[in-house]
């Protein structure tokens, strides 16, 4: 069954993820306080122990902040997941170096928590968007590209999400080796372009001003970077002006809808075959 993507509104899994992230976040903060008070039971101390507790608490705060707005605060939840993975590894190292049974339990609990949260987040994104050609990460990148490349000062005919949906659906219908290059362009855009403006975050998590600065860098650059800018423009125009609403926003009117078409005889002309008489 070919199901359409859900463009707006939270789905059931996203609502569950919202609540789970907030709950897990504050649970991690509470665990950090308990571990700090009972540092003897966990056998951690010193600068390393303080950094470990700080990373665990910060992961909890960021996850809770991300859960308070899973779409608007995506950067916070991304960083929270990264810190949770770092904290889990830190507790594992502490357990291996002789921190005690409590550290082993903490490391295992954080690792299980990380896997479950990551799985739930992926399922939530998959339930909202069902890309046919792009991966989930590439689809998020395409949304950010559309929001960056199409600037109508609030008068855009299509939302960036709708542009990304159009691009994804169109690429499935194009039989060309160039479609694989578009995948590569989105990957480079997501991970390499932010480095041009010295931002250690992925492109889809940057603010609009930083994203525009990064795109301007590649537009004014030479060599392969200019090819990236050209590909981004093609993708954005494909999704925006490949839609009837995008076409209408330019003032273009299809010929059958114009006034001069009314009453026009479109019957095909039939001409006699000039060679028919010669054959006789």
Strand content: under 5%
Oligomer designation? single chain
Shape: elongated
Number of contiguous helices: 13
Count of extended strands:
0
Calculate Rg over CA atoms: 27 Å
Largest sheet: number of strands, sense, barrel closure: none
Runs in which pLDDT lies below 50 for 5 or more consecutive residues are none
Share of helix among residues? 55-70%
Number of domains: 2
Topology order in helix (H) and strand (E) letters = HHHHHHHHHHHHH
Q: Return the structural class.
A: mainly alpha
N-to-C span: 58 Å
Q: Average pLDDT value?
A: 86
Description:
It is a single chain. The chain is mostly helical and 280 residues long. It has 2 domains: 117 residues; 115 residues, no CATH class. The chain has 13 helices and no strands. Helix 1 packs antiparallel against helix 3, helix 3 runs antiparallel to helix 4 and helix 6 crosses helix 11. It is elongated and about 105 Å long. The N and C termini lie far apart (58 Å). The model has no long low-confidence stretch (mean pLDDT 86).
Could you provide a short overview of the structure?
The protein is mostly helical.
Primary descriptors:
single chain; 280 residues; mainly alpha; 2 domains; 13 helices; 68% helix; elongated
Helix and strand layout, with pairings?
Layout (H helix, E strand, L loop, with lengths): L11 H26 L1 H4 L3 H22 L6 H23 L4 H28 L7 H14 L10 H14 L4 H14 L1 H4 L11 H12 L4 H18 L2 H6 L26 H4 L1
